[in-house]
Amino acid sequence: MKQLLAFIGFLFFIQGNGFTQKLYLLKPDRVFDGTAIHEGWSVLVEGEKIIAVGEPKNVEEAAQKLQTSGKPAPQIIDLKGCTLLPGFIEGHSHLFLHPYNETTWDDQVLKEARSLRTVRATLHAKQTLMAGFTTVRDLGTEGAEFDDVGLKQAINQGIIPGPRMVIATKALIATGSYAPKGFSPDIEVPQGAEEADGHDRLIQAVRRQIGKGADVVKIYADYRWGLMGDARPTFLVDEIKLIVETARSSGRPTIAHAGSTEGMRRAILGGCETLEHGDAGTPEIFSLMHDKGVALCPTLAAGDAVSQYRGWKKGVEPEPERIKNKRVTFKQALDAGVTICFGGDVGVFSHGDNAREMEMMVDYGMKPLDVLRSATSVNANVFHLSQLGNVKTNFWADLVAVEGRPEERISDVRKIKFVMKNGEIFRNEPILSPKSSK
Ligand SMILES: [Zn+2]
């Protein structure tokens, strides 16, 4: 009976708590606020927002002030040995794809039921969030129609755990340019995105995608199409301008898959805000990107993964041409001062392994601190997410804690101990090894 009463009391406690906002006082060893490291800082979260951040004395004073106004004492989250950072923002994901060494892209598009792809996507969403990526810019369902709209709703309604999603829905391609290959021209093959060309059809397609839920319009400015093996431009500059203008008039940005030099040039001149991949960029192209304020999302990990799927034994065999070139062009982009987004094209490789791109950015020449900025405040800024990517007062409480010092050793971003999204805790693990605390 006593136990039953205690249980009923507990139920009332839970219910009662629903009326007051939850308060958490986070005490890591240090805070990376999106720009710099601050030793010893604490963070106070109320409900969905960060309400205080800074020296422990000031943050605790803020908590005390709340208590004198009748609010409960905050729950203390001890994150000793950890660095607290803004939730990471993945800049280029495909939650509806899984690694190509499991199933080729062609077979995923042609042979997998959309229901199967959706079930996988729900697991991918969870893996992504648990790895500390609290937001994704998901750049196309790759043949799975508008299914990212429902996935995003399921996450936002709390039905499944997952990151905040910025979605592109079907994405846009010039007719015939992005589809499974090797078929007779007499067969109609489903495309990996929506085909549209010319004035009226492009305007309609952009508006349809936005109407169904697209936050961003993605175009393929080039692709390997027809019988030629290399990437060639698709849309004309005027077509891209039309897409950009149509999207912009509704407040949405346009971004472009662009791997070839000419595809990149057209996407920049057409007004796209970010270029994805950019493998054949040149110093001239990168300087044009810099001057026009176009960001590069280099997707280093996707190239690394695909090269290995094709047989390259990394660490044993010399780097293939594609990898060598990518190192050169990435360096050129850095030298030109191009804004670098963090985005790995995850889906080509495993969801939850998003950190692979961060490690590669360091390997290819970026400083760890710049990579952390890229994956937080820079992505937030480039993607127009005005209250994310920073640990600042009044920003959404999307926070992760990792054991160690990722600004010195980037792979520490994998040592996730704590994940909070929108003030809700999704992961909170005790720190077992005291070695990293000083
Ligand atoms: Zn992609």
UniProtKB/TrEMBL annotation:
CDD domains: Met_dep_hydrolase_A (cd01299)
Entry-linked SUPFAM superfamilies: Composite domain of metallo-dependent hydrolases, Metallo-dependent hydrolases
Domain Amidohydrolase-related: 83-425
UniProt keyword terms in alphabetical order: Hydrolase
Xref: Pfam families: Amidohydro_1 (PF01979)
GO molecular function, one term: hydrolase activity, acting on carbon-nitrogen (but not peptide) bonds
Protein name: Amidohydrolase family protein
